[in-house]
Design a protein that fits this description.
Order of helices and strands of chain A: EEEHEEEEHEHEEEHHHHEHEH
Distance between the termini of chain A: 10 Å
Shape of chain A: globular
Strand order of the largest sheet of chain A: 3-2-1-4-8
CATH class of the largest domain in chain A: Alpha Beta
Oligomer: homotetramer
Structural class of chain A: alpha/beta
Largest interface: A-B, 48 and 48 residues
Chain lengths: 313, 313, 313, 313
């Protein structure tokens, strides 16, 4: 099969990209994200049409945040869009006249990294996306593992603190409450409120107020050595690494790939994650250790991965 | 392939059994478990010889507690036997003249249940063995998943309580410290010490002392409705079910199979585990729920599973 | 000294009551609670005037939610009223022409129970108010202990779960997030959402929805034996009792007095609290145990206590 | 009253010291600690006689590890000596012919620091002894507060981690499991095992093995900047400071005094404790902050305190 299209449905825009067999994006077309399910179908089709004009495209892969069923056809539930058992595959196939595969967006990104990014050469990989929340995907034996009902790899909602923080999912103590971009900001704000004298750089970036501190400020301040920002990253890494150690006990992959916005900081965050992972890894002296790698495709991983999954059929 | 032999290496005895293609054990031969690695090889060979006399056996599968490498040949590390990078496959093959497969014992038991027990008909199953500790195995897409280095499915050492109880593995807060036969006894003793007047049945069974209370006493007392024993099972189930909910978020299997000595109590323990699982399952109202089943093969699961893995080669 | 006035500043109304030396309320006058600090001073004075008409009153005690300084004059900070270093004593004294004592409302209630309620005859008592939140007061050696700066006895904000639930105070894992009327409702809603079939009575009371469930419904349903409601009280009691055990290690009082709206359920909640307390009490077999008593004055404790503190000067 | 004697009963020796009204030790006499209760009475009397020879001594104060009753006469229970309801006051009084006061050793040390050490000038002080375990004493309104039954101030056994580490007291998650000399060693060993390459100084001091690492090695290595040792102190300080914040919510003292062997490191440990305390202190921006001071009397605090308590009668 030749070219396929990957679609990434974001909070503000929908991007469709034509991707070749090497994972290269040949062309991208972007439209704003509307608010209703029907309008979103229109927008997806419009983006696909825009990207594919003049090209011989053979299939479409759509990455969507939410539970996607085991047939990769229906979005059972989405947190940010009003999708409830939405038959997205059928709706889009009827309109674009191409085979469509729907995939959870974090799964798609994991597949992208496995095929064309940091995961190349590995057969058993766990990808973790540290964005606003925490998601990921599982590759075992060179296949994406979706679970019996399609909803595996919901890493962000594993409980790591009994009776811990409330999560939007209704649970308490979910991993993404402790290891995610949102958690990073909480750490920074709590620390800046408690010890403002040590958080001068951070507070200045946040226009002088604790509430003004955002994720990008924590990154900037950490690169300048602001102790509160550095400590906030260390706290995030403590929880992220502890979770990886658990996943190693369960999955024993050859590599973890850390993607998402938080991973843009590279070694600033990877190095403390590795340290925490290593400290908490059970049987560390006896077993081979999984590598902890930074993702390579950035925010294109989902689009590229969805396109490739469509190619595989 | 016709008959194969499964070997189960227990703390006090080594059992070898001839198993047919339907998972039926045709004959078993048992020898005491010696203490040194060399003597254990002798004992395994002796048990295999005893069981196979007069039969046409084609392969041997050995279930061993410990880390087994990805080639299913070497026991990297064992907690109870002095195996450190022990080439068990080679040693036994040279002696018995048959192909040998070495497998982690909990993996072997999981495979046995999947093939011939509660897991029949399922393709994606997580087996949990609640014995003295907590172990298990992962079947995804009809295959046993062992991880890149062979040491996946170490469920018992996932951290479920940060800064929690010390574990023999060196970690803290490991699942098996909260959901296992040993945990059950701890719950019962703590409660009996705090409220002896409510634990009369239990204390009587334990010869009047808190330290005398053992697992079998908790089971007996719970069946008689002793409130402390019932509450101890409920506490175990609380932690077991919470862990299953996490595993559902990660693996999304169609069924969990609960084996091990604790599962001998059947619904006495399964029912509260299901209740706890259901309460903590994320997205419970949207997703199909995995079944929580009781194992069917009892303590033969490991032997049968090892034999079948040897047959599969 | 003869009669004094106690003032209770609630969320919706301000009550002033004339109280005699036996703690009997002779007359009460109530006005609505305004929203600004100045209007609240007006309202307090109006309530005091209304209650004291025709009586010879010698002092005024005001119970206020918030940090009150060690001079019992200034409200340093209040969570629900815009008081920041508010000199309440001076303002009211100037207007009513009587000596005024300002006291934290939970301290005042503790004092009321100690003097005229469940604490009579005890010298060392810890009072815990399980209302919407969790507050309390400390009596040691027959004196109310307010701390060096006036802000002792903030029981509700002791951290009992590291990295636990966010609290309005900015902390995480505060006791009042786990043991309070608000926590009770959360427990009931979480359980009703997870197992609606077991929460029929509760859901019916809440007009069929999980969000409709309120504290009074949990009480009503628990009295009818609804399993989810009973279990919610048990969860609250688990945390309440564990906290009492800690306070026993610290303060070693002769009695705990449990007041606040949650305590209105009497033994329904007291009995499981005692059980949890007893189980977690350190050295339980060696030490005399503090009693766990239910408060006797209901929501009048604060008013009566404030009046008595004003009498003591 | 002029001179009194303080007796400190340690694990290896019993020290009796003559102390004047300024808290100065004029003379000390030391004998080995025997193993039986009767022999310990003999040893105490021998030490007292040895120290008081030729002096006009008026009373004896004995500091003992364990629960001491509210009459300061009987040791109800001791963890390390076989005392069960031991009438120590009566036994020693009969032999030495002087009034005797028995006091919990951590209470005695707290009183010593309050009277002659870091607590001078304060009226409300909490002393925390970070030794092998964690103990302490409470001074409120210039009096030692012992609780109704004599067993207050058992700080070390407040539960700070639900379902946490087992404690010798039978509880789980006790503070002393996370903030004490023993905890410090555990932190160092865990870290050295996980990342031996970063613990070279520490491992060398421990004769090359993780198990060889002791408390003094962690101190030495931390002073040399060994990252694992420094991190171990930081972990201890994290838990110590969090506990102080809780105690501030409860007691609101003007000062905390940190004593015990761990405090010998001075600012190396005090500074991170203060930082952690400040971060976790509830309402930090509104309330005056208690000081966190290092103890001044070292291991003489208990003896001096016991002598002074005997003087006070």
């Amino acid at each position: 099969m030749g070219l396929t299209i990957g679609v990434d449905i974001g909070g503000t825009k929908i991007a469709a990209g034509v991707v070749d067999e090497e994972g290269t994006i040949l062309e991208t077309h972007t439209v704003p994200t509307p608010s209703t399910p029907d309008a979103i179908v229109d927008a997806i089709c419009s983006a696909v049409a825009g990207a594919s004009t003049g090209r011989d495209v053979e299939a479409v892969g759509i990455g969507a945040a939410g539970y996607v069923d085991d047939k990769r056809a229906t979005v059972i539930f989405a947190p940010n869009i009003d999708w409830r058992h939405e038959p997205l595959k059928d709706k889009v196939e009827q309109r674009v006249g191409l085979p469509v595969v729907v995939e959870n967006d974090a799964n798609a990104a994991a597949w992208g990294e496995y095929r064309f990014g940091a995961g190349q050469g590995h057969h058993d990989v766990i990808c973790i996306t540290l964005g606003t929340g925490l998601g990921g995907g599982i590759i075992i034996g060179n296949k994406l593992r979706r679970g019996r009902f399609g909803v595996a790899a919901e890493f962000g909602h594993v409980r790591i603190v009994p009776d811990g923080l409330l999560c939007g999912c209704g649970g308490q103590g979910c991993w993404e409450q402790y290891a995610s971009g949102r958690a990073l900001v909480r750490y920074a704000r709590q620390r800046a409120a408690a010890t403002p004298d040590q958080a001068r750089v951070l507070l200045e970036l946040g226009d002088g107020t604790v509430e003004g501190i955002e994720g990008k400020h924590v990154s900037t301040a950490a690169r300048q050595g602001d102790p509160v920002a550095v400590d906030s990253f260390r706290e995030l890494a403590r929880w992220a690494g502890a979770g990886l150690a658990d996943l190693a006990s369960l999955f024993d992959p050859s590599a973890f790939i850390i993607g998402g916005g938080v991973s843009d900081e590279g070694e600033l965050v990877l190095e403390p994650i590795r340290k925490s992972f290593r400290r908490r890894l059970i049987g560390a002296q006896w077993r081979p250790h999984a590598q902890v790698l930074v993702a390579q495709l950035g925010n294109k991983a989902g689009l590229v991965g969805a396109a490739d999954l469509a190619r595989q059929g």
